[in-house]
Each structure stands twice: as C-alpha cells, then as structure tokens.
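re: ur question from yesterday

yeah so i grabbed the chain u mentioned. its 375 aa long if i counted rite. heres the sequnce exactly as i have it in my notes:
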Amino acid sequence: MASIKKTENGTYRVSWREPTGRQRSKFFKLMREAKAFKASLETDIAQRTYVDPSAGDRVRFQAHAARWLAGRTVERATAARDESLMRVHVLPRWGDWPLLKIDHMSVQEWVAQLGGQLAPATVRECYRVLALVLGTAVQARLLVRNPCDGVRLPPRRKQDAGLTLTREEVAGKLLPEIPDRYRTLVAAAAFTGLRWGECAGLCWEAVDLDARRLRVVRVLVEVSGQISVKPYPKSRAGRRSVPIPAAVVELLAQHRQTFPSPELVFVNSVGGPVGRTSFRTRVWKPALQRAGLPEGLRFHDLRHSYATWLVSEGVPPNVVQRIMGHEDVTTTLGIYTDVPADFVQRVEDALVVDLLWIEPENEPGNEEDPSEEGP
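ran it thru and got these structure tokens back, copy pasting raw so excuse formatting
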C-alpha cells in the first residue's frame, strides 16, 4: 500500500513499493494531488496495470523505435515503407525525446505542421507509425497511455484515381508504341485489369488460352531494386480467375512463340523478371511520349480504365468487384470508376417515357366535379 507524509518544506511525499519490491516516492505541492495519485497508484497495483512513472523517462524514442522495427513480421514492401517514413518524418522530430515527454499536444502540433507540408494521406501514414511505436511502449509498461489517442488528423481527400483511357486510345495509340517484347504485357494489364505485380508474376501454368482464363495466384514485389516472389496476391479477394478477351488470347499465343519462357509469361531481354522501375523508365514513359498521351499516365491507370469500361458497359458492380480482386465493392465504385462523359444522355435515355402509357382515368369532358355531392 502507498502512504502520504508531509515533508518539512510543506510538500507531500507519496511512498510506495513496486511489484518488483523497489521502494519509490513522488512529491506533490497539494494534499489533494497526493491523494489522487495514491488512489490511482493503488488501483493500478491491485489490477496489475502498474507502470513505473519514470520508466518512459529513461528510454528515448529512437531506441524504442529501433526495437519496434526489428521485431515486426510484415511484408517487405510494408517494412520498407515504414522505415522510410520513420527516417524521413518521424525520427527527425521525436528521435531524441524521452518517451514520457511526448504528450498529446506535442503530437497534435506535429500533425498540424506536417499538414502544411505533406498530403493528408502522407500525414496519416506518419501518424500511424508514431502511434504504433508508442502503442508498444504502453504494452511494454513504459507509458501509462498513448499520447496519440484522440489526435485530430487532416480530413481524407477523395483518392486521386488517376487518368482514364478509352479502349481506342489503348489499342490505337499506346500499344503500337510499346516495344514488341512488352506489348502483350501492357495489353494484358489493360484488358484484364491486373495490377503490375500480378502481371509481372504471371506464370504460364496460370494461363489457360483454350478456356480464355487466367488465375491470379502470386505476385512479384520490388523493394529497393530487389525483386522477390510473393506466393499470394494482395488480399484474399486478389486470388481470382479473370476472363481474357479473344484479342489478348491471340497476343499471348504469339508472345509465347516469339519470347518463350518456361515459367514467367513476361521476361526481360535476359530472361529474368521485368523490373517495375526499369520498365517505367525505359519502356513506359518513352511510349507515352511517342503516343502523345499524358506524361502523368501511370501503369496502374490501365487497371482504372478497365474497371471504368466494365461499369460503363453495365457489368454489375459485384461482378466487377470480383474480377478486380477487391475486398469491398465500395472500393470498386468509389476509386476505380469514373462518371462517363455521356452520362446526361444516358440518364435521359433511361427515363424515356411513352406518353401513351399514361392513360387518364376519365375521358376528356367526363371529369367529375369534386364540388358536387353524391346521393
């Protein structure tokens, strides 16, 4: 149990013994502060939630963050992303701070400052990393509570879905400018909606040209220039079967003869996996320039265009969701689909009404006078 004793200089000392047996004390100017601390302290000890009040003062954020990074079991891409956020945005502010000194208001001010420099999505990611590190400090009994709790974050902006191409632009402008070795890769992405990693990791054993189907079962991941195979897609919904249009079936058959490979469908000039960075620099951007297409067009915009085509052609959203490999249909409708340019005409066409359908209940001249009373 804890005790309170008034000292010679008029302060109040709360003394207690930690669960480890160590004797501790803390001083307060007012008796009510000492009593409140004593009550909270005894409750924490009884409920086994006691935290050494000075534990977080002895550990600096950078040291605890290093342990957090080293102890995680996440995907390589996720680890690389969080390490970058930590190095560029989090450690420059909090690295030398003792954990105990990081308070709610300081975190709120930091978030506000980042909001003036970075996009809301990036600010949220920086906050997420800080909150995760401090959350483990709470679990490690270094902090009583997470100072990130309740921090107000910048509102989310509607995600920039990117640019949309028409089928004519893909077939007539873009594909003719793609080198032969990679033309089928771009066509497959545009007309099956596969992500980059799903295209780059596509194996012949997952392609059935006779049935005009391909299966997404694994992806290639590139982190810091190093390419590795992930034997499963982005999510559970990502493992799916996708129809292949007849024109792409022909391109795949020709590609297999021209650029034979025992495993991967698409390989580079030395037979290895296609790297995203080198493809973007050496193939994608030059092709966009030659085709006269926007320089900001991303490879992922092919997927965005594909989803837009399907929805515009009346394919049910739940079917589009399944083909795209989305966990939630709101992702399909909210991010990867656009309002078609001719939406006004489509609405008008959908609401055409034949006036002959509207039959009046009474012939002209036989209307009843509502003022006349019945028998």
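noticed a couple things. The first strand starts at residue 3 and ends at 6. also The radius of gyration is 32 Å.
anyway ttyl
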